[in-house]
Write a structure and sequence with these properties.
Blueprint: H1 5-35, H2 39-63, H3 67-80, H4 85-97, H5 101-114, H6 119-131, H7 135-148, H8 153-165, H9 169-182, H10 186-198, H11 202-215, H12 220-232, H13 236-249, H14 254-266, H15 270-283, H16 288-300, H17 304-317, H18 322-334, H19 338-345, H20 355-368, H21 372-385, H22 390-402, H23 406-419, H24 424-436, H25 440-453, H26 458-470, H27 475-488, H28 493-505, H29 509-522, H30 527-539, H31 543-554, H32 560-571
Helix pairs in contact: 1-2, 2-3, 3-4, 4-5, 5-6, 6-7, 6-8, 7-8, 8-9, 9-10, 10-11, 11-12, 12-13, 13-14, 14-15, 14-16, 15-16, 16-17, 17-18, 18-19, 19-20, 20-21, 20-22, 21-22, 22-23, 22-24, 23-24, 24-25, 25-26, 26-27, 26-28, 27-28, 28-29, 29-30, 30-31, 31-32
C-alpha cells in the first residue's frame, strides 16, 4: 500500500525531529567538558538521531514508491533501535506494499509484542489475515483488540468480517447489532447495512439505511448507497429523493448529478433532466460525460441538431473524443448524409473500442449509397480479419437480410457461431433471419434459447412477444414479454410498435392507436409501423386513412414480402 498523507506528515515530523536531535548531539559534544554530560548519553542520543534520520528517509521513499531504498533505510534504523514498535510496524507496511505477506505479518506481530496497547498494528494484521484467507487467526486477534477497547468500532467491524470470511453471516450480523445497541456508532451502522446488502437481505438493508440516516442525516455516503439500493429495487422516485439529499450536502458532485439525470430520463421527466444537465455544466463546464449525456437526451427526443451541437462542443473540449466522432457519424447517417457520416466514422482510431463498430457503420454507408458489392466485400473482410468479434458477422448477415438473401444470412450466422458459440446477439440475428424467411417456429426456438442466457434482454423479449402477437399465439404472455422489454428500454420505437400491435390483436383499438402513433413519432421511416396503422384504420372502417398509411409504407422501401402484403391491403381500401 502507498502511505497516505498521515504517513507523509509523519515523515516530515521525523525529519524535523532527527535534525533537532543531531543538532542537540553536536551541542552536547562541544559542551561536554563544561557540563560534564556522560559520553554514554551522547552516544545514545546520536544513535536515536541516526535512526530517526533513516526512518524519515525510509518513509519518504515509501511515499515515492522507492520500496527497496525504503527497506534499506528502515532496516538500518532497526539495527540502531531494535525495540522500536514504530519501525517494526512501518516495515510491516513496507512488506505489504512489496506483496511479502509473511514478512509483513511477522513485523506487525513484533510491533504488537513490543507495544501491546497500540491498536494500529492489530488492525493491520487482522486485515492481512483476512486478505491471506486466515479468518480464524483474524477472529482471535479481533477479539483481543475488542477486549482492549470494547467501544472500538474498527475492532467490531473487523471481528464481523472475520465471521463473514468463515461463512458465519448470522454471527457477523449479531455482533454488529449488539455493538450498535450499546454504542451507536455510525461506521458500525453502515457496516451492518452493507452486510445486509451483500447477503441479499434487501428489506433489512433498506431498514438499516433508513435508521442510519435518521440518526445521521448529514452522512453523504449513506445517501448514495441508499439511493443505489432503491434503484436496484426499482423504486426510482425514492432513489431520486435520496440522491437529492446527497446533492444538498455535496452540490458540485457531477457524477451523482448525472445519475439524477439518468433517473429523471427513465421516469420521463425530461425538462427536469435538462435542468440538471445545465447545473452540471455550471459546476463542470469541461466534463466530457456531461455533454455526452446531454447529447444522448437530445437523441432520445429525436432532436438531432441539438445533439450535434452538444457533440461539437464536446469536440472543442476534447478533440480526441472517439464517442463524439462516432455519434456525429450516427447523426449524419440518420440524416442520410452518407459522405459526412463516413468522414466522422473514419476519425475513430484503430485503438478505440468503437473502431470495429465505426468500420461497420462505414460499410452501411457504402451500402446505402448504392455500393452494395463494395459493402459486402468489406463485411466479408471484417469477418476474416476479426473472426472472434460479432460485429463483422452481424454486419454481413444484416446486409444479406437487406438483400433478402436469407439463406446466405443464416449460413453466415451459423459460421459465426462456430467461432463465438454462446453469443446471444448472434442467436437473435439468426432468429430474425429465420423469421424473415418465414420459419417462425425455428425463429422462436432460437430466441427462446438465447433468452435463457439473457433473461432480461429487451430485444429478445420483444422479438418473442411480437412473434407471438403477429401469429395470434399466447397473447397474454406476449403482452407480459413486451411490457418487460419496454420497461428495460422505454424509448424504443420498435417495442412501442410491438405493444400497439398486440393491443390491435386483442381488439383494444384506442390503446393500439395511441401506441402506434408514438412508435411512428420515434421511427417515422419504418414501413412496418405505417402498415400497422393502416391495418388499424382499415379494421375500424376508415378506408381513406388506411390508404394514406399503406401508401406511406410503400414509399419507405419495404422488403419484397412486406411490399406484397401492403399492396394486397391497399386493394381493400378501394
Amino acid at each position: 500500500m502507498i502511505p497516505g498523507w498521515k504517513q507523509f506528515l509523519a515523515a516530515l515530523l521525523a525529519l524535523s525531529t532527527a535534525f533537532s536531535v543531531v543538532l542537540g548531539c553536536e551541542l552536547l559534544k562541544k559542551n561536554s567538558a563544561t557540563h560534564g554530560r556522560p559520553r554514554a548519553l551522547t552516544a545514545q542520543l546520536s544513535a536515536e538521531a541516526e535512526a530517526r534520520t533513516h526512518v524519515s528517509q525510509g518513509l519518504r521513499d515509501m511515499y515515492n514508491r522507492r520500496l527497496d531504498e525504503a527497506e534499506d533505510h528502515l532496516k538500518k534504523a532497526l539495527t540502531l533501535q531494535p525495540n522500536s514498535s514504530f519501525i517494526h510496524f512501518k516495515l510491516a507496511e513496507l512488506y505489504m506494499a512489496k506483496n511479502n505477506y509473511e514478512l509483513a505479518a511477522d513485523s506487525a506481530a513484533k510491533a504488537i509484542s513490543l507495544e501491546p496497547e497500540w491498536s494500529e498494528p492489530y488492525s493491520f494484521l487482522i486485515q492481512l489475515y483476512l486478505y491471506s484467507q486466515k479468518p480464524k487467526q483474524a477472529e482471535e486477534l479481533a477479539r483481543k483488540l475488542l477486549e482492549m477497547n470494547p467501544q472500538d468500532p474498527t475492532a467490531v467491524i473487523l471481528l464481523s468480517r472475520a465471521y463473514q470470511a468463515q461463512g458465519l453471516a448470522s454471527t457477523a450480523v449479531l455482533t454488529l447489532t449488539e455493538f450498535i445497541d450499546n454504542f451507536p456508532s455510525l461506521e458500525v451502522r453502515k457496516e451492518r447495512a452493507r452486510l445486509f446488502l451483500a447477503l441479499g437481505r434487501l428489506e433489512d438493508a433498506e431498514l438499516a439505511y433508513k435508521e442510519l440516516l435518521q440518526t445521521a442525516p448529514g452522512d453523504a455516503e449513506s445517501w448514495v448507497e441508499y439511493g443505489q439500493l432503491l434503484v436496484g429495487r426499482g423504486r426510482l422516485d425514492q432513489a431520486l429523493e435520496a440522491y437529492r439529499q446527497y446533492l444538498a450536502i455535496n452540490p458540485s458532485d457531477t457524477g451523482i448529478r448525472l445519475e439524477v439525470v439518468r433517473l429523471l430520463s427513465q421516469l420521463g421527466r425530461m425538462s427536469e433532466a435538462r435542468e440538471q444537465i445545465e447545473t452540471c455544466k455550471s459546476f463542470s463546464p469541461d466534463a466530457d460525460q456531461v455533454y455526452e449525456l446531454s447529447a444522448f437526451l437530445y437523441l432520445q427526443d429525436n432532436q438531432l441538431d441539438k445533439a450535434r451541437q452538444e457533440y461539437m462542443t464536446l469536440l472543442q473540449i476534447n478533440p480526441e473524443s472517439e464517442r463524439a466522432a462516432f455519434s456525429l457519424g450516427l447523426i449524419e447517417a440518420e440524416n442520410k448524409n452518407w459522405d459526412q457520416a463516413r468522414n466522422w466514422f473514419e476519425m475513430v482510431p484503430e485503438k478505440s473500442k468503437l473502431y470495429l463498430e465505426a468500420r461497420a457503420q462505414v460499410i452501411w454507408a457504402f451500402y446505402n449509397q448504392g455500393n452494395k458489392d463494395q459493402a459486402l466485400d468489406l463485411a466479408r473482410k471484417m469477418t476474416r480479419e476479426h473472426p472472434g468479434k460479432t460485429v463483422g458477422w452481424l454486419t454481413l448477415a444484416g446486409l444479406y437480410q437487406k438483400e433478402e438473401k436469407y439463406k446466405e444470412g443464416i449460413q453466415t450466422l451459423n459460421d459465426a457461431l462456430t467461432h463465438i458459440p454462446e453469443d446471444t446477439d448472434l442467436f437473435y440475428s439468426l432468429a430474425m433471419c429465420h423469421s424473415l424467411a418465414g420459419d417462425n417456429q425455428k425463429a422462436l426456438e432460437l430466441a427462446q434459447a438465447a433468452l435463457l442466457k439473457k433473461p432480461d434482454d429487451p430485444a429478445l423479449l420483444n422479438f418473442i412477444g411480437y412473434t407471438w402477437a403477429d401469429t395470434d399465439q399466447n397473447l397474454d404472455q406476449a403482452e407480459e414479454f413486451i411490457k418487460r422489454a419496454l420497461a428495460k428500454d422505454p424509448g424504443n420505437g420498435a417495442i412501442i410498435d410491438s405493444l400497439g400491435w398486440l393491443y390491435f390483436k386483442k381488439g383494444q383499438y384506442q390503446d393500439a392507436l395511441k401506441l402506434l402513433n408514438q412508435a411512428l413519432a420515434k421511427i417515422p421511416d419504418d414501413p412496418e409501423v405505417a402498415k400497422h396503422l393502416g391495418q388499424l384504420w382499415l379494421k375500424t372502417g376508415n378506408k381513406p386513412k388506411a390508404r394514406q398509411y399503406f401508401e406511406k409504407a410503400l414509399n419507405q422501401n419495404p422488403r419484397e414480402a412486406q411490399k406484397k402484403e401492403i399492396e394486397a391491403l391497399l386493394k381493400q381500401t378501394r
